[in-house]
Structures are given as C-alpha cells and as structure tokens.
TrEMBL record, chain A:
Residues 6-222 form the ABC transporter domain. GO terms for molecular function: ATP binding; ATP hydrolysis activity. The lineage of its organism: Bacteria, Pseudomonadati, Pseudomonadota, Gammaproteobacteria, Pseudomonadales. This is Zinc transport system ATP-binding protein. SMART domains: AAA. Signal peptide: none annotated. The keyword Mitochondrion does not apply. Keywords: ATP-binding, Cell membrane, Ion transport, Membrane, Nucleotide-binding, Translocase, Transport, Zinc, Zinc transport.
UniProtKB/TrEMBL annotation, chain B:
This is High-affinity zinc uptake system membrane protein ZnuB. Involved in the high-affinity zinc uptake transport system. It comes from Azomonas agilis. Its main location: membrane. The keyword Ion transport applies. Keywords: Cell inner membrane, Cell membrane, Ion transport, Membrane, Transmembrane, Transmembrane helix, Transport, Zinc, Zinc transport.
Length: 260, 261
C-alpha cells in the first residue's frame, strides 16, 4: 500500500451563496497520477486551490501528510515586461536553489537551453517546462499541475504528458493535475476524477470514459473520443464525412461511435 | 561648500539610494499611482502631526500606513476599481490636509515647502532622521528582497513555496510610507513618486537582472540629485523640481543610448 499524501473528505466550498464544491472526496497517493477532469466552472481549480492550502474549505476535512512538500505549477505566469528576469533568475526565487540544481531541473524537463532567456520571451510550451522545473526544484512529494498543457499544440501536449509521467517515475512523487481532454491523458494517468461541483465518478480512465455519469456530463461524443484510439468502427460517406449510425444524431460531421 | 548645501546633498543622495530599489518594485508591481496616493496623504499626516504635537516624520509615516489600511479595506468591501479608489483617496486626503492646516492659524507653516520640497532648509536634525529612516528601509529591503521579488513574479506560487505573502506586502507598504516621510522634505508631497519611478524607468532599458535595475536606478537617482542641486545652486531654481527635471532628462537621454542585445 503506497502512502497517502493528501486526503479531502466531504469538502464543501461556497462563494457568496453559490455552492462550488459539494461533498468532494479526493485522495492522492505517492507515485500516482490523478487527473481532475470536468467542464468549465465545475470547481476543478477551486478543489486544487484547497489542496494547495490557498483556499480554506467552507466545511469538511483536509488532511495533508505532515511536512508534505508540494511543487505547484500554476496555469499561467504573467511577468511584467519591465522586470528583467532570465529563466535562471526566475528559478533562483526558490529558496536554496543553486546553479547546479537549476540546470538539473531544466534538463529533466527538457528546457536546459532556456537558462539565459528572458522569461517574457519564451514560448507557451517552453514556459510550461520552466514552470515544471520550478516545481521540481522543491523536491516535491506531490506535484500539483493546473492545466499543464494550456496554450500548447496537440503534439506538444502529448509530449508534455509523457514528460509528466517520466518525472513521476524519476522523482517518485504523486501528481494531481487538471485537464479537460480525457482522450489525451488516457495513457498517462492512473486515475481520473470527474468533477462537476460534486465527484461524478472516478476510476481508471478507460472505466470512467464509459461511466454513465461521465457520458451524461460530456456527451457521448467526448466519451467516444476517449475510446476512439481503441476502435475505428465508424463509417465514412463518399466525401469522407463520418456517417452516424444513429439517424437522430445532431452533429453528423463530428466523429462518434455511438454504435459501438 | 556651505553647510546647508552639504546637508541637502547628503539627504538627496541617501534618498536616491533607497528610492532606486524601492522604485523598481513600484514599477514592476504597477503601483505608481498607489505611491502617488500615499504621498498626497502625507500632507494630511503633517497636519495630524501638528495637531497631536508629534514628530512630523512619524506622523507622515502613520498617516500613510493608515491610508494603506483604508485602501485595502475599501478594495475588499465595494466594487469600485482600484484606480478610482486611489483617485478619490489621493485628492481627498490632500484636500483634507490643506483644510486641516488652514484651521491652525496660530501655526505658520510653509505650505510650498511641503508641496514641492525645501531641500536647502534641511537641518542637521532632519538629516539624522532621514539617515535613520533610510537605513531602516535599506536593511529591511535587503532582507525582504527575495520574497518580495517572488510575490511580484507570482503571488500564489510564492505562497505555496512558503512566503508569508500578506506580511511581505504589508512590509512593502510600510517601506513606501517611510520613504515618503523621508522624501517629503526633499522634493515635496507632489513630486515624491517621480523620484521613485523615473530613475527606475530609466534604468530598466539597460538592465538584465532585477538587481542591475535597482542599482542602476539608485545611481541614476543620485546623479539626478547632483545635477538638480547644481542647477538650483547656479541658476537659483527650486531644488526639488530641479532634481525631478534632471531625472526626467536622464530618462530621455537613456533612449539615445543603444539598447544592449
């Protein structure tokens, strides 16, 4: 049995009169990649901020392993153009980080060549790698990543997810991340937690993608997309359009495998 | 050199030294208008000091801190944007200061001196206060440098990494308040912000690290003080505005220098 890093029990969160989280349960273990998935405004970021200790839950229990070191990778970073800051200087903001540990962390995330670049001048994908390196500098037991692939093209996204898996294997840390495309994280995640104010379902990605709660939330098409890599069972018409098997399907031009 | 000029020079140089790094943070954190508002409130602080009969430097510092607290409370409790709030507070505290001072008819004060500075009237006593205040700010700033830079770059990231964000932010406001109290005698409440941001903005173009920008701002500010005082001495211009004009000239000159790349 691997060690539990964080445990949330019956967590409620209200902003003004709005209930954002209801009875949320979450557990992250050492060495495990947990992906939080859900529609916009479902409370994913709120849940993550509670895990990080940036927000205090309205009620419920939040337990963190005593002395837990968390490496956090925020969704975006905006540094004023007037602040002259190279990648190395940015990483030096972490206490105890020196040149050697910084170059090592950058090498681990495949961004060693960026050491002397100004942080304002690197691309979105490069910035994600630098932010990941900063999280690693803390020698984290738990990595928390808020939409780690935002603003990165699809091939870059796949690469980043593979990188996260590699880092999990190398550092042996637990990973909690937010994503909204289950089909991309299928291969690289151990457990998916589907959130829409409450936990709709959770489990192994293949299991979740066929769960009725998940299908209801994302529609059969997304669920189908998640399975798409396993089966190619749709038909094309003469123009190459995908022909739905169910005649009433409202969006005939999108891929679906409801006939599966 | 006459003593009053020596005093003026030392006071100006020490202020410029401190204003460099602090002003860099004001630029990076986009707090120029915040600094302006605090310095407008300084006049209210002066009136308060005269009313309660306490040291003007202490009163100004207290006045600025009080305003910062009011501002934070207002920001949390109502929907008006920060710049609107700052505009309201800046001008109402300045006016409140002027109105309060007008009630104290038995005290004759040099209003122009408070508004635009009276550098050549710095006494040895004043100088001691200024040196003490500046030294305090400098030491605290060195101590707070990394956490302050960390919260300027990304506040939540810094918080997760264990930086006490609220305490650091409060300390930063306190530092600005002390510098305003020091600077009031030198350039006056209406011109203080310029001494914080013009040298920092001038140094920004050629700096490659935050530390280079802070140090460059200090050096440019000190140069502006020397040039401004010389102008004041030889052309008989008001000292405070002369320093600001010199700083602005340096800022413009910076554009002619080719940018390193």
């Amino acid at each position: 049995m691997t060690e539990t890093l964080v445990r949330l029990h019956d967590v409620q969160m209200r902003f003004a009169q709005q209930a954002v989280l209801v009875d949320a349960q979450l557990e992250v273990h050492q060495g495990e990649i947990v992906t939080l998935i859900g529609p916009n405004g479902a409370g994913k970021t709120t849940l993550v901020r509670i895990v990080l200790g940036l927000l205090k839950a309205t009620s419920g229990q939040v337990w963190r392993k005593p002395g837990l070191r968390i490496g956090y990778m925020p969704q975006k970073l905006h540094v004023e153009a007037t602040l002259p800051l190279t990648v190395e200087r940015f990483l030096r903001l972490v206490p105890q980080a020196d040149h050697q540990t910084i170059t090592q962390a950058l090498r681990d995330t495949g961004a060693a060549h960026l050491l002397a670049s100004p942080v304002q001048k690197i691309s979105g994908g490069e910035l994600q790698r630098v932010l990941l390196a900063r999280a690693l500098l803390r020698q984290p037991q738990l990595l928390v990543l808020d939409e780690p692939v935002q603003g990165v093209d699809v091939s870059g996204q796949i690469e980043l997810y593979q990188l996260i898996t590699r880092i999990r294997n190398q550092y042996g840390c637990g990973v909690l991340m937010i994503s909204h495309d289950l089909h991309l994280v299928m291969n690289t995640t151990d457990r998916v937690v589907c959130l829409n104010h409450h936990i709709c379902c959770s489990g192994h990605p293949a299991q979740v993608s066929t769960d009725p709660a998940f299908v209801a939330l994302f529609g059969a098409e997304t669920a189908g997309l998640a399975l798409y890599r396993h089966q190619h069972d749709h038909r094309h018409d003469m123009q190459g359009h995908i022909v739905p098997s169910i005649p009433c399907c409202p969006t005939p031009h999108k891929e679906s495998n409801q006939d599966a | 050199m006459p003593e009053f000029l020596v005093n003026a020079l030392i006071a100006g140089l020490v202020l410029a030294l401190v204003a460099g790094p602090l002003g860099s943070f004001v630029v990076w954190r986009r707090m120029a208008y915040f600094g302006d508002t605090l310095s407008h409130a300084a006049l209210f602080g002066v009136a308060l000091g005269l009313l309660l009969d306490i040291s003007p430097m202490l009163a100004v510092t207290l006045g600025c801190v009080l305003l910062a607290v009011v501002l934070v409370l207002l920001q949390q409790r109502q929907p008006l944007a920060s710049d609107t709030l700052l505009g309201i507070l800046a001008h109402s505290t300045l006016s409140l200061g002027l109105v309060t001072l007008s009630f104290m008819r038995e005290i004759r004060i040099d209003l122009m001196g408070y508004l635009f500075g009276d550098l050549l009237a710095v006494t040895s006593d004043d100088l001691l206060w200024m040196l003490g205040g500046s030294l305090l700010v400098l030491v605290l700033l060195l101590y707070l440098w990394r956490p302050l830079l960390a919260i300027t770059v990304h506040e939540e990231l810094a918080r997760v990494e264990g930086v006490p964000v609220v305490a650091v932010r409060l300390a930063f406001m306190l530092l600005i308040a002390v510098v305003i109290a020091v600077a009031m005698k030198i350039v006056g409440v209406l011109l203080i912000t310029s001494l914080l941001i013009i040298p920092a903005a001038a140094a920004q173009r050629h700096a490659r690290t935050p530390e280079q920008m802070a140090l460059g701002a200090s050096l440019l500010g000190m140069l502006a003080v020397c040039v401004g005082l010389a102008l004041s001495w030889f052309a008989d211009t008001p000292a405070g505005p002369s320093i600001v004009v010199s700083a602005a000239a340096l800022f413009l000159l910076g554009f002619m220098w080719p940018k390193p790349d």
